[in-house]
Specification:
The chain is an alpha/beta fold and about 210 residues long. The chain has a single domain, classed as Vaccinia Virus protein VP39 (Rossmann fold, 3-Layer(aba) Sandwich). It has eight helices and seven strands. The protein has helices at about 20-25, 30-35, 35-45, 65, 80-90, 130-140, 170-180, 200-205; strands spanning about 50-55, 70-75, 100, 115-120, 140-150, 180-185, 195-200. It has a seven-stranded mixed beta sheet with strand order 3-2-1-4-5-7-6, sandwiched between helices. Helix 6 links the parallel strand 4 and strand 5 (about 140-150).
């Protein structure tokens, strides 16, 4: 994922209209240097018995990695062509624990009370009704479950969307609070992004 121009044609989800170019960005090997996927997943401590969800799974950058760690992965995206590509990659990898889900912009369509962890990477700034969406994610959590959001700091960066498309950490935290979630951990290991881990307030109280 490289820098995106402010006048770049975009689809109705806010992604670049040229899907082939967008896929190339998602799969760019240089992404590993700043996205640090292995470190992210290690920090989240996914258990072998965990049911996890990757919201905005795209080409499977995180979903395929999580499939090697967890019992079950729900891979959610709103773009049918990306899900079709992901299905092919799941089949090629011989994985049987990844369930692609065609979500809606306002609803991930994940079954209720099934997830131990929901990971939302580089996606939350696209979501139209953010607090309401977080409440839907919260409904998909098992007791003790967590939601993790990773997104770009709202400033000029060598990667990610233009500044006016980004969501600042402070605005993200405001949506988290509005949704009734509590920050349990914040990791500062990523060079261009904030990394927030949260849980429902009631589970935190327990």
């Amino acid at each position: 994922m490289s820098s995106m121009s402010t006048d770049e044609p975009r689809d109705h989800h806010g992604n670049p209209a040229d899907l082939k170019e967008y896929i190339a960005r998602l799969d760019n090997p240089e992404r590993d240097e700043w996205q640090r996927p292995e470190a992210v997943l290690a920090a989240l401590g996914i258990a072998r018995t965990s049911v996890v969800c990757d919201v905005g799974a795209g080409t499977g950058y995180f979903a395929l990695r999580m499939a090697k760690l967890a019992a079950q992965v729900y891979a959610v995206d709103v773009e049918p062509q990306l899900l079709s590509l992901l299905r092919d990659r799941v089949a090629s990898a011989g994985l049987h624990n990844v369930t692609p889900v065609l979500g809606l912009p306002h609803d991930p369509l994940v079954p209720p009370a099934v997830c131990d962890l929901i990971l939302v990477v580089n996606v939350f700034h696209h979501v139209p009704e953010k607090a309401a969406y977080l409440r839907r994610l919260q409904a998909a959590l098992r007791p003790g479950g967590r939601v993790a959001i990773i997104d770009f700091h709202k400033r000029e960066l060598p990667v990610g969307p233009p500044v006016d498309h980004k969501l600042s950490r402070e605005d993200c935290l405001a949506q988290v609070r509005a949704a009734g979630l509590h920050i349990v951990t914040e990791h500062e290991s990523l060079p261009y992004q904030y990394f927030l881990v949260m849980s429902p307030k009631e589970s935190h109280a327990r």
